[in-house]
Amino acid sequence: MTNWKELEKKYFMRTLVRAPLTIVKGQGSYVWDESGRKYLDFVAGWAVNSLGHCHPAVVEAVKRQVGELIQTSNHYYTLPQLQLAQLLVENSSLNKVFLCNSGAEAAEGAVKLARRYGKLHLNGAYEVITATGSFHGRTLAMVSASGQLKHQQPYTPLPAGFINVAYNSIGAIMEATTSTVCAVMLEPVQGEGGVNVPSPNYLKEVRRWCDEKGIVLILDEIQTGIGRTGSLFAHQIYGIEPDVMTLAKGLGGGLPIGAIMAKDKFSVFTAGEHGSTFGGNPVTCAAAYAALAFIIENDIPRNAYDMGNRLTDGLKRIKERWPALITEIRGKGLLLAVEFSDVIAKELTQKCLENGLLVNDVKPNALRLMPALNITGDEVEEALSLLEMALCRLRSCQG
Fold first, then answer.
1. Is the terminal CB of the chain with fewer CB neighbours within 10 Å at N or C?
2. Which of 41, 96, 98, 135 is catalytic?
3. What are 79-111's pLDDT values in tens digits?
């Protein structure tokens, strides 16, 4: 059998530490390794596989499109791109779309759009307020935007134009707002930062402040959008609308795609001011259209809400049996975190893997759970059982 670990070590840059698992097949909420062992996947490609692995609607759309047209350029019209744009606009509060290839590109493009708006309408204002603990991507500008020192320190000096303030503090945003600020960019729920949920009125207060100051509110829904939190977009839970929104991850049903969406007033790019060679690729757009249409037509966000509640209730029962170890269960829908009183997440993730459950150690003391949005109740119960079994292997079953 090929030693894939050594092959990766030989040929790849050392940008991450992989789990000791080579996945060769996926179907629904399960994956298989090269020896044929089956695993329940509660990582879902970092919240990418919105309908699980190889969903028939996505597979058929990709097969059909690959046989018809793979790539042109944005110099021409293509049907999958236009169909996806229409579906996004008709099911959101925003009016215009730009399609790209990833969440980082979407976030970068949204900041460019806000700066362009600032130049045109805010006397050249260019700074963007973001939150500590946020994560907006790994381009150099988005590293600067993301309020996490661990991502920033290796790349100093960072590009200017970003002000990191405390998350969930309207006062911090108000204090940081000067005449040079053009936008506020926030995740409705911080994903990579540890699944941090704001207070109920926070986003409404931010919305009011942006309206008062005439600045752009950008919501990064790269991880929270497309049904992940129990509604099609997370901002709907909080009763607000953004001026600009970024999407990626679950939008493509497993294929790489990102999107910037904006209200007409803030859609200020003109020809040549932004672009992408591969953005809006016919194959990825066909996949995204199929995934999004299935999610909307089958009310998959409702399933994410119901299964999220079921998973949360189960995690709370486990917490009751492990009160000294589990300190908090938090999240929305099927974006959840389990926080511990000890730094055990990495070791527990390994124990889960050995038991046949894939989870993500998002912080040294916290696991992140983000399964497919169409997961079943039986699969939720299986995951809860495997997780507690892993806890028992890691610690005494007495708690």
1. N
2. 135
3. 999 999 999 999 999 999 999 999 999 999 999
Answer yes or no: is 103 a known binding residue: yes
- Is 135 marked as binding a ligand? yes
Distances (CA, A) of 22 to 8, 35, 349: 11, 9, 16
| pLDDT score for 50 | 98
Provide the 10 A C-beta neighbour count for residue 139: 16
Active site residue: 96, 213, 249, 363, which one? 249
What average pLDDT does the structure give for the chain?
96
Rounded CA-CA distance 34/36 in Å is 5
Among 392, 337, 331, 332, smallest CA distance to 364 is for 337
Every domain of the chain and the residues it spans? 56-297
**What is the percentage of the chain residues whose pLDDT exceeds 70?**
99
Helices (H), 25-102: 44-47, 56-66, 79-90
> Does the annotation flag 220 for ligand binding?
yes
10 belongs to the catalytic site: no
pLDDT tops 60 at residue 398: no
Active site residue 220: yes
The residue whose two tokens read 């990626």 is 248
Please indicate whether residue 249 is annotated as part of the active site: yes
Confidence (pLDDT) at 6 = 87
Catalytic pick among 220, 233, 269, 361 = 220
| Highest CATH level, class, for 56-297 | alpha beta
The answer on whether 277 is annotated among ligand-binding residues is: yes
